[in-house]
Design brief:
about 160 residues; mainly alpha; about 0% strand; globular
C-alpha cells in the first residue's frame, strides 16, 4: 500500500539537502557525462528543476482549472533542460534555481492540499497502470521521489 500524505511532500523536500552538497563538486565532474552517451551532473540537476517548473507552471494550473495532467514527450522536454545546463549557467546558480523551484513547489503543495490530492487523469489515464493507484499530483510527487533517487544514484556513481 502506498502511503500518500504530507510526509510524501516532506520527503520530496529533503532532496534539497543532498543537492546542496553538490556545490562542492569539482567542475570537471559537474560537466562530464555520468557514462558515455548519458547526461552530465549539471544536466541531471537541470532536468529535475525543469520537471518541478513544469508541475508549478503547467500541471498545477491545469488541476486548478478542473483538467487532467498532460505530460509532454520526455525526450524533447529533457533536451531543453540539458541545453539550459549547457547555456553557461554556473553550478551555484543552477543549484540555487533548483532549490528555489523545489521550495516553491513544496510551498504550493502544503498550502493548497486540495490541488495535491485531487484525483485527476494523467494523459487521459485515471489510475497508474503499475500500482492501480488513482492519479493525483501527490502520487506524481511520490513517483518523482523515486525519480530523484534514481538520479542521485547515478550522480553518486561518479563522485
Amino acid at each position: 500500500m502506498i502511503n500518500l500524505s504530507n510526509d510524501t511532500i516532506h520527503r520530496y523536500k529533503e532532496f534539497i539537502e543532498w543537492t546542496d552538497t553538490l556545490r562542492d563538486l569539482d567542475d570537471k565532474i559537474w560537466l562530464t557525462p555520468i557514462t558515455e552517451g548519458k547526461a552530465t551532473v549539471s544536466e541531471i540537476v537541470s532536468h529535475l528543476q525543469n520537471w518541478d517548473n513544469y508541475l508549478i507552471n503547467t500541471i498545477i494550473p491545469a488541476i486548478k482549472n478542473g483538467k487532467g495532467m498532460v505530460f509532454p514527450d520526455f525526450n524533447s522536454f529533457n533536451q531543453k533542460a540539458y541545453e539550459y545546463a549547457r547555456s553557461g549557467i554556473s553550478k551555484n546558480s543552477l543549484l540555487e534555481e533548483f532549490k528555489q523551484t523545489r521550495l516553491k513547489l513544496i510551498e504550493i503543495l502544503l498550502t493548497d492540499p486540495d490541488v495535491a490530492v485531487k484525483h485527476v487523469t494523467v494523459n487521459g489515464v485515471e489510475n497508474c497502470p503499475h500500482t492501480s493507484t488513482p492519479y493525483s499530483l501527490l502520487y506524481i510527487i511520490y513517483e518523482f521521489i523515486e525519480h530523484d533517487i534514481h538520479h542521485k544514484n547515478q550522480i553518486l556513481s561518479v563522485i
